[in-house]
Amino acid sequence: MAVHAHPDDESSKGAATMARYVADGVEVLVVTCTGGERGDILNPAMDRPEIKADIGKVREAEMARAREILGVRQHWLGFVDSGFPEGDPLPPLPEGCFALEPVETASEPLVRAVRDFRPHVMLTYDEKGGYPHPDHVKCHEVSVEAFEAAGDPERYPGAGEPWQPLKLYYHMSFSKDRISALHTAMEDAGLESPYTDWMKRFEEESERRAKWDVTTRVPCADHFETRDRALLAHATQIDPNGPWFVVPLDIQREAWPTEDYHLARSLVDTEVPEDDLFAGIREKVCL
């Protein structure tokens, strides 16, 4: 189960991992906390009045295409996008948005989803949300709450039969090491890197980023193309001429062929570093 804040997050974080496990016969569920109703339109070709007027429905249709490409199931929690506040001082968050929901209120439908789907592994964001969007931070909070509460029959007693997931991971998709490796690989190939500004921001934002070690690197380079097709399905959010697609796939596969995670909770014995989210849950069979 991968828990995400908005439609498109599932395609930019961990999509190749999910496609790999789907190909291996694993059932994968994406849980999307909000509808992305307050998201900006980031693709100039989609920045049209009729799209803006019906952005919620448009993003719902984009999510349907992405989940079909990835081969995953998907469930909406039904909360309202909080938007990304900007300014100094920051404006207040809109009334009724996901980020302002009490943790127990926001967690109950996720606990229900966990008990219904019965995942062994959950994926979410770190306590800073990966980046400080209020919905990403709330997504972290409800994911941790659901992981810890879903197996306890005394908690959320009306939300289904208890089920305890075994491992909880944080996405480490945009680590400095990965971005640096891709940046160097582009320069070594004589190509202009899209990550020059990223490298500067890593230094400037070092204190604001959660400092988690990568414990688990999942080989999934064969599914990078599927990841990119799922990203492109989110046409309001992803500019096909933007930086997502500047680094050729062959360079990506050579420079960094994994998607990376931090093992935040585990109820099974496992040794790090890992190369499998299910390490300690199922035996590996080598032919």
Secondary-structure element pattern, one letter each: EHHEHHEHEHEHHEHHE
The radius of gyration over CA amounts to: 19 Å
How are the strands of the largest sheet arranged?
Answer: 4-5-7-6
The helical percent reads 25-40%
Subunit structure: Monomer.
Keywords: Hydrolase, Metal-binding, Zinc
Cofactor: Zn(2+)
Family: Belongs to the MshB deacetylase family. Mca subfamily.
How is this structure best summarized?
This protein has helices at residues 9-12, 15-23, 49-53, 55-70, 103-117, 134-149, 176-188, 196-204, 224-233, 249-255; strands at residues 2-4, 29-34, 73-79, 121-124, 167-171, 216-219, 258-266. With 287 residues, it is of the alpha/beta class.
